[in-house]
Each structure stands twice: as C-alpha cells, then as structure tokens.
Amino acid sequence: RHFIFWLTPSTCRSYQNRHIPILSADKDYHFVYLTMKDFVLTFNNFFNDLADFLPPGLILSLSAAGLSHGKYRETYFKEFVGSMLMIMFTFSAGKWIGKNSWEIAWVVHAIGVVAADYFGGGQQVNPAVTVSMYALGKVDYTEAFVRIAAQMGGGLISFPLFHALSEAMNWTPFGGPEFNMSSNTEAFMSEFVATFFLMWAIYILNWQIHFGEYHYIIKQTLTAVAIRALIEFFPTAGPAMNPMLATCWAVFGVGGKFEFPDDNEHYFVYWLAPFAAAILASVTYGIYNGDSVFGKKMPLGPLKKKKID
Fold first, then answer.
1. Helix 215-233 crosses helix 184-203 at what angle (to 10 degrees)?
2. How many Cβ atoms are within 10 Å of 9's Cβ, its own excluded?
3. pLDDT tens, 115-149?
C-alpha cells in the first residue's frame, strides 16, 4: 500500500537522500509516494524526536489526572499550573529581578510566594506538604497521589521552559538546590529540620492564627518570610524543603543528562528527609491540636487549651 504526502522542500530533500522517488514537484512543495514501511519509519522518527523533547516522567504524571474516573482532574491541573507559577515567581527572584541587590531579591521572593499562591488557587505545590495533609486526614490517598504527580509534572515542564525563556531574553537562568555528596548526612539533617519548621509555619499561619480582614495577605507574607529565613539558616542542601523542586532541577539542571538522578543519596536527602519531617510534624501537630494522624488518635494530647465559651 502507498500513501501520498505533501512535503516542504526541506522534508523532500531528506526523502531524496533516502532514494524515495518524488512523484511531482513545483517551486514550494513536493508530492511523494510512501510505502507502509516508509510511513512507519517516518512515524518512528517523529516519535523519537517527541520522546527526546518531552521531560522524562511527564507522561506518567499526566496519566494521574484520570484516576478515579477523573474525579481529581481539576485538582491535578490546578496543582500542575500552581507548581509552574511557584517556580516562575520565586526562582526569578535574584535571577530575573534583583540580581544585584539581595534586598530587592528578598522582597521579590516574598511577593512571588504570595502571587504564586493567589494566582495558583492556593495549591500545595510541595510533595512534603501533601504527605502531611494526607497524614492529618485533609486529603485521601488518591488525591495525595494525584497532587504529587501534578507537582512533578509542573516542575518537569518549568525548568526547561523558563531556561529557554531566559536564553531568549538574555536573562540569568534559574538555579536549583544541590549538595555535596560527601556531606549527605549533614544535608539530610538540614533538609529534615528545615522541612519540619516549614510544616509548623504552615500549621500555625493557616490553622492557629487569624489576622482578621487582611488574613490572607498577612499569612502569605509571613509564610514567605519563614521560607526565606529557613533558606538562610539551613543552606547545606540548598535547601529545597520540597522534593519536587530538588528532583525536577536535578533532571534538567544537574549534569546535563536530562534524566532522573541515579544516585540513592539524592532521594535520601530530598525525599526521605522531608517526608520523614512532614510525618513527624504531623504527629507533633496531632499531639498539640488533638488531630488524628493516619486515622489514629495520638496517645498524648491535645496540649492546646480549648476555648471556654
């Protein structure tokens, strides 16, 4: 069987080089007969080019949107977009804006934290946060899985996309969290403690204190201040305090391999440490506030005094 295609001159030349006969031609376009074998070969080349272009793991991430008959599809895409916005707004501080002034970079980072949350619809954008929300019963297992898959998808797209934008606009490219492999123990401890404090900042600012009419803007600004302080106090592993950021940056920005890290230390520092910290933070919050953790009441607490009406 044969297939007829309308080809541009450049594509036509590639067929001529493979000795595929050209049916007819004019100045701008050519027609060519392809056998089934030629058609499959062409499709194979297209597939290989597409696979090389797409970030590794993106297809698996996207497939999570259809779980539970699409029940969490909207959640998936909000997390996906929210993660991209978070990276764009916060990583541009000190790179695209405030390059020569740490004061401006800090202010821009704070604004970025608020803007990413506001325009992203208040998504979690952090697998460690999602694990804590699951532990505390705020989301079920499937929703937690979908959110983490979406966060990874957004991160895998963001770093190459914003790098291309940086090159096109002649801006400083983004960086990302890294650590010295010889100090993986210190890096683990740094990520663990930083993530633990981050969780508690989230609990307090979102669930324990209300700032009245301007609650949202105040609590998001204080969240940004807490994140910046933790970055300064715990620099050993970046810090990331977010497994998605660390791994997506490693896929694109470390070593130029464009593949997931193959060293166990990366996952030890950037996934095990923040997940363990998120679970411990959930347990301590459960003891303080009386919440269940993984569906179980804590044997201690609640330490928080109940209001007397």
1. 170
2. 11
3. 889 888 889 999 999 999 999 999 999 999 999 99
